Amino acid sequence: MNYPSGIKKKNVKDINYGNRGMSLESDINISNEYYLMNDIAIIHKKPTPIRVCKVDYPSRLDAVIKEAYYKVPSTTDYNGIYKGKYLDFEAKETKNKTAFPLSNIHTHQIKHLESIVKHGGIGFIIVSFTTISKIYLLKAEDLINFINTNSRKSIPIKYFEENAYLLKYKINPRIDYLKAIDIMYRGEF
Fold first, then answer.
1. Which residues make Cβ contacts (< 8 Å) with residue 31, sequence separation at least 6?
2. Per-residue model confidence as pLDDT tens digits over 139-167
3. For the segment 112-147, what is each residue's pLDDT rounded down to a tens digit?
4. 90 with 139: CB under 8 angstroms?
5. I need a surface site. Which of 11, 46, 104, 170 has the fewest CB within 10 A?
6. Segment 47-63, tens digit of pLDDT
């Protein structure tokens, strides 16, 4: 675009991919704060283990990590305890309207969820289909069953509709995924 003063400006949008998935995680974090403040459950986001290599110290209070590497592949996003049961889950977002790409969840995360279930914990994934504004909670058992019985590279939304719990946005908690746990595991508490 040409301005009268001779300054030329382009309409260029910088695309930042750094915070993809942060909207769902932010809503889950708000829900977890509600659960904690109301003594319903203790659930926290797990920090990603990193190895810091270079740090810039412009001043004592302004240390900046310049270079870091993941120590080991992380397991899942969240863990905690609810009604005496261990919970462990992963939160994922997709813009896909018809399916959840399995490439969005890593093999080591699936194996981790499998181990959680094997040892009596409750494992699941929460998937947000952002384009169609639907959020589902899928039990780890159903995720693993799908992977073991299908050769597809994605889970169709129909599978979520038939096997997962549709989560609704609320005021408090923002995403009441523990209500889904109560319903899906009725009688197991």
1. 173, 174, 175, 176, 177
2. 999 999 999 999 999 999 999 999 999 99
3. 999 999 999 999 999 999 999 999 999 999 999 999
4. no
5. 11
6. 776 677 777 877 777 87
Tokens of 138: 């899928």
Here the tokens at position 120 are 């009596």
pTM, to two decimals: 0.79
* Cβ atoms of residues 77 and 64 within 8 Å: no
